[in-house]
Design brief:
By secondary structure, this protein is α/β, with parallel strands linked by helices. The chain has one domain: P-loop containing nucleotide triphosphate hydrolases (Rossmann fold, 3-Layer(aba) Sandwich). It contains ten helices and eight strands. The strands form two sheets. A five-stranded parallel sheet has the order 2-6-1-7-8. The chain has a three-stranded antiparallel sheet with strand order 3-4-5, with no helix packed on it. The longest helix has 17 residues. The radius of gyration is 17 Å and the shape is globular. Bound molecules: 2'-deoxycytidine-5'-monophosphate (DC). 2'-deoxycytidine-5'-monophosphate binds next to helix 2, helix 5 and helix 9. The site of 2'-deoxycytidine-5'-monophosphate has 14 residues, from helix 2, helix 5 and helix 9.
Length: 223
């Protein structure tokens, strides 16, 4: 029997991380945060002194990632351990996201992470969050969602998140970073960010998380 997969792709700040977590919890399914694997590879490379120009070194870092995901209380982010060390906070920084986006343009790095991502497909089902879940990693998924929102709204969401966490940031600088990251993720030749042909596109601009979750739940019934 094939394990059902729901893919949720889209740009950073579209709410896909939150929606993926809520959906996986409601369905009682496994969750794949593929962005975390790119972030972890970048972090591991930095810690091992591997340059982002060293393709072979990056591939080795991706293949040898010693990572564990530990469940936490509902609503809390999953705890991520790299070589036994809690790196949950380090992974969520803007600079780590930016580093991840830089190494993610390298096709051999993407290839090195492919099987590790597919290994998350286990019974009773998987909700997979990323950029290329529906196009490359799980092309046969029965339900594919592409979640988007305007760059302005995504910058505002991120601004509120960081402010709540006590981090002072400039909203114009955030908007600039978001635009630059979109540009890199969408225009790379390796698995560019774009909706799969059979994906349902949901624009979350102006919608609450609950409104988006309702739409996603209605689609999830088809998995
Ligand atoms: O979703 P995120 O912000 O954690 O992802 C960080 C970067 O990793 C993103 O800018 C591009 C890259 N990424 C990718 O190329 N493919 C994925 N499936 C997930 C993330």
């Amino acid at each position: 029997m094939t394990v059902p997969v729901i893919t949720i792709d889209g740009p950073g700040g579209s709410g896909k991380g939150t929606i993926t977590q809520m959906l996986a919890r409601r369905l009682g399914w496994h969750l794949l945060d593929s962005g975390a694997l790119y972030r972890l590879t970048a972090l591991a490379a930095k810690r091992q002194g591997i340059s982002f120009n060293d393709e072979e070194g990056l591939v080795a870092a991706a293949l040898n990632l010693d990572v564990a995901f530990e469940p936490t209380a509902p609503g809390e982010p999953v705890r991520v351990l790299l070589a036994g060390e809690d790196v949950t906070g380090d992974l969520r920084t803007e600079s780590c996201g930016d580093d991840a986006s830089k190494i993610a343009v390298i096709q051999p790095v993407r290839d090195a992470l492919l099987q590790r991502q597919r290994d998350f497909q286990k019974m009773p089902g998987l909700v997979a969050d990323g950029r290329d879940m529906g196009t490359v990693v799980f092309p046969d998924a029965p339900v594919k969602i592409f979640l988007t929102a305007s760059a302005q709204e995504r910058a505002e969401r991120r601004y509120r998140q960081l402010k709540d966490a006590g981090v002072g940031v400039n909203i114009d600088a955030l908007l600039e970073e978001i635009r630059a990251r979109d540009e890199r993720d969408m225009n790379r030749s390796a698995a560019p960010l774009k909706p799969a042909e059979d994906a349902q596109v949901i624009d979350s601009t102006g919608l609450s998380i609950e409104e988006v979750l309702d739409q996603v739940m209605a689609l999830a019934g088809q998995a």
